[in-house]
Amino acid sequence: MRALQIRRTQPNKKKRIVYFIILSVGLVVASLLYLYSKTYAKSMRVGIPMTPYALESILIRALPHLAGMLVSALVIACVSLAFQTSTGSRILTPSMVGFDSVFIGTQTFLVFFLGASAKIFANSYTNFFVTAGVMVAISMLMYGAILRNSKNNVIFLLLFGLILSGIIRSASSYLQKIMDVNDYYQLQAATAVTINNMNIKLIYAVAPIMLVLCSIMLIRHRTYDVLALGEANAKNLGVHFQKEINFNLILISIGMSLCTALIGSLTFLGLLAVNIARELFKTHRHSILFIASSLAAALALVFGQGITELLQGAVPITVIIDVVGCSYMFYLILKENKKI
After folding, report:
1. CA-based torsion, 264, 265, 270, 273: positive or negative
2. Which domains are seen in the chain, by residue range?
């Protein structure tokens, strides 16, 4: 009887197709809004006609940035869903355990000890791979220390992440106050969410890696379905639980490190996208959730950036996503608390 009730609450195949179409159409509209805000809206605002040459020049730069947003949203959604499956909690995202703080701290230490003019900081390629490497190394050490011996210590992981974030942010804040003013401004520019300032060549270099990472996760969707059942059930079904969790954490660390180093910290984007997908499609099948979460994340990021461009940057994209994400997180916490 209970199985029948659960089955009735799940949307049928036609409804799921409708939801996919709505998300896809919304993403197309959001992309057009972003391109419009970068071209004709800006042209009308400054009172300069948009000539074909000007349009082509703007699109040459805007389209790679749009591609960078889409790929970043894809990775954030995939790693957030994988992280929730690994930890067994739908109110956590990888960003909440310190990725953004490690990113800011790495940039701060590079500028303070080497200077903003140092090649390791000024060169976008070197900076990117050094920052991503540091984040991968620290996250793997943290995961290995806490999520060990087949125990998902979710609360301890979150607390450790908060403590680590506080320590790194405090150290970074102190170093920023005593560093050179010019270095400080360059550091602020480097650590902000820089969608319009993304290096186009870097997008071309990193996007294939990010797509391969997401493809690996999507191919392993059946494994994630089994991991979501818990350790005991996964072992009974022939899955090496701890081995799969460790491999999954490696993928998550690489994905979040690449995204944070490329586009900056978007803490609540993954949380928002994954839970919207869960609420709409009401399924535990990761083949559906990966695609739906990616569409929702891309829609939120591109639409938010389009609104930011129309408002001339008066409201940063991080503010829009964080306000909506925080509100939705409070709703999820209250909802989960009622079930206890």
Report:
1. negative
2. 50-339 (1.10.3470.10)
Q: Which tokens is 97 given?
A: 């355990």
What is the spatial distance between Cα 86 and Cα 34, in angstroms, rounded to a whole number?
35
Neighbours of 315 (CB within 10 A): 14
How many angstroms separate the CA atoms of 106 and 103, rounded? 5
Alpha helices in 47-123 (DSSP H): 52-87, 99-114, 119-122
Cα three-residue angle 9-214-136, rounded to 5 degrees? 115
- The Cβ of residue 204 has, within 10 Å, a number of other Cβ atoms equal to 12
CA distance linking residue 69 with residue 196, whole number of Å? 10
Cα-based distances in Å from 69 to 4, 181, 302: 41, 31, 7
DSSP assignment letter at 94: G
What is the C-alpha separation between 146 and 166, in angstroms, rounded? 18
Residues 6 or more apart in contact with residue 266 via CB below 8 angstroms? 72, 76, 95, 193, 259, 301, 317, 318, 321
**What span, in angstroms and rounded, lies between the C-alpha atoms of 278 and 293?**
8
Spatial CB neighbours of 175, under 8 Å, sequence gap ≥ 6: 108, 109, 112
Place of tokens 């993304």: 198
Structure tokens at 126: 């070197």
Tokens standing for residue 112: 């303070």
Report if pTM > 0.90. no
For the record, the structure tokens of 128 come out as: 């990117």
What would the two tokens of residue 315 be? 């409201």
Per-residue pLDDT of the chain (340 residues; tens, 9 = 90+): 444 444 445 567 888 899 999 999 999 999 999 999 988 888 887 777 888 888 888 888 889 999 999 999 999 999 999 988 987 878 777 877 777 788 888 889 988 888 888 888 888 888 888 888 888 888 778 777 776 654 556 667 778 888 888 898 899 999 998 988 888 888 887 777 667 777 778 888 889 999 999 999 999 999 999 988 887 888 888 888 878 887 888 888 888 888 888 887 777 888 889 988 998 898 889 999 999 999 999 999 999 899 888 887 667 787 778 787 777 777 777 776 666 5
